[in-house]
Amino acid sequence: MWMTRTPDRACRLRAAALALLLVAAHAPLLAACAAQPSQIEQGRALRTGKQPYDELFEATREVREESMKAEELARAAHADLARAVGLDPRSTDDAVLEAARARTAELRASGVLFRVELVPEARLVSARGGRSLDADDRKLVEAIEASLKSSVATSRQLGELSRRAAELEKRRASLATGSAEALAGDPRRREVKRELEAAERVLAEASAVAERHAGRASKLALDLVLAIDAGAAPARRGATRRQPPRQPAGSAKAPPRRGSSAGDTPKPPKPPPPPAHGGDDFDP
């Protein structure tokens, strides 16, 4: 009886071992298929032949590409200003702003005044009341003005990008809600559903990136304006402290002398005497 069951058990063991080998051999392929990202996350727009979905996927792809350039846009204004003040473009915003404030303060001390105008466009107006601007001074003024323009433009551009992402998310949610009915019987229904879910993640990330770098660009422009306006001229070396003007002799009034009529305080009048015999002071 034992001998008759041995071949069956051996066959089952060999079949199980073969199955394990097949699974192990195809495990990397199965894992790759399961972890494969969607087309929209790879920068491609799915073509379904249905206009609402195709337009959404294409617009989402464009927003994704623009958001990937947001950091570069925000860094451009910072880098140009850093070079103009003699710093490394990788310096922090605070270091660059402090250097710009110090340079404009030096120019103020020599009689060069600045005024920032943001409407209709950002620009830096300088008025020379002292020495003329040399090449380095003009380079600094041009860099500050270019940084202001670039920061304001970048903030507006990325703010608009965030708004577009929010509008696309509304369209995506509406299409996802009606996709089961609109794509009933469509062989690509599951693929479209996966792309719609991926588009939600892509749009959320693009909006967050755009808002973050738009805020950074806006803050740089505002801080730069404040740094220029607050760049009070430092005290010059060797400058003597201005003394208050002396008061001319005889201008101050001397205190009144004792016993003089000018300094006496008038006494209040005495009250009238009471009527005689305690009577009334009116006729009966």
Automatic annotation (TrEMBL):
Instruction: List UniProt keywords, sorted A-Z.
Output: Signal
Q: Where is this region: Disordered?
A: 234-284
PROSITE patterns referenced in this protein's UniProt entry, alphabetically: PROKAR_LIPOPROTEIN
Q: Which domain of life is it from?
A: Bacteria
Name of protein: Secreted protein
Skewed-composition ranges (Pro residues): 266-276
Annotated signal sequence is 1-31
